[in-house]
Amino acid sequence: MSFGETLDASMDSMEETRFKKKQGPLIKELLAKKKVHFSQTEIECLLIIYYKLQKDGPEKQRAVSKNQFRDILHNAFDMTDGAMMDRIFSALDRGPSIYVSMETWISALSLFLRGSLEEKISYAFNVYDSMNDGYLGRDTMFNLLKSSLVSQSGEDDAEEAAKDLIEVITKKMDIDRDGRISFQDFKETVMKQPMILQAFGQCLPTRLAAYSFVTTFTPNRGKL
User: Fold this and answer.
1) Rg, the chain, Cα only
2) CATH 1.10.238.10 holds for 120-196
3) Do domains 13-116+205-217 and 120-196 have the same CATH topology?
4) Whole-model pTM over 0.85
5) Are 118 and 86 in contact (CB under 8 A)?
6) How many C-beta atoms surround the C-beta of residue 48 within 10 A?
7) pLDDT tens figures, 143-200
């Protein structure tokens, strides 16, 4: 698709052309990164979505805010665990800014929509290991599981259920039997059983939500 062809009918064609030309160097940089699983046209479409979100924010907002991104995760990707949001933001971008950069926006969507299992394993572990210790101890596991279970049952029931789950998960994932789950333990277990990737809480879009989002910028393919 050429720069003269309009990607978004709701934008003035000249405005869109100026935006894409301005972001040309960034688009080239993103395409050079092997971990970004989008074509040039797809990146352009996603950056235009970003631009429209930025314009919809408060006056003179210089980027998409984390609150706006939180709404995207909740409404578009069915990621509704509020207790997990701060961990997700930290895993995607450990900086203190209240904004989500264009680079982080594209990288996050590439991971969510087209990421390999190994990429998602690294990301999920980083979400759960919010202290960046390199392992998940029992206290960390308890806090993660209890938070995700509170909404499904009472506080006391969630605590007991979390303790029971810790025993089950530790037996399955703690390969070296040192009482904690290292990244290598986590990776080896999930590579064999991908269904337990999000054992400690949802940090990725549902498959249906991801497919629906993909079709907004690749309507003829919808490839995940």
Assistant:
1) 20
2) yes
3) yes
4) yes
5) no
6) 21
7) 898 877 765 555 667 788 888 899 999 999 999 999 899 999 999 999 999 999 999 9
Residue 59's SS3 state is coil
206 contacts 122 by C-beta, under 8 angstroms:
no
Determine contact, residues 25/197, Cβ cutoff 8 Å. Answer: no
Distance CA 200, CA 172 (A): 13
Condensed to tens digits (0 to 9), the pLDDT of residues 78-112 reads: 998 888 998 999 999 877 888 999 999 999 999 99
Architecture of domain 13-116+205-217: Orthogonal Bundle (1.10)
94: buried, middle or exposed (CB in 10 Å: 19+, 13-18, 0-12)? exposed
Find residue 135's DSSP bridge partners.
182
Q: What whole-number distance in Å separates Cα of residue 37 and Cα of residue 107?
A: 9
Who's near 183: CB < 8 A, 6+ residues apart? 122, 125, 129, 134, 135
Contact in structure between 49 and 217 (CB atoms under 8 Å):
yes
**Amino acid type, 113:** L
Give the integer Cα–Cα distance in Å for 18 and 1.
Answer: 15
Given a contact cutoff of 8 angstroms between Cβ atoms, the answer to whether 28 and 65 are in contact is no
Predicted pLDDT of residue 55: 86
Domain-wise residue ranges, the chain = 13-116+205-217, 120-196
Beta strands in 90-218 (DSSP E): 99-100, 135-136, 181-182
What span, in angstroms and rounded, lies between the C-alpha atoms of 24 and 116?
A: 26
Residue 32: predicted pLDDT: 87
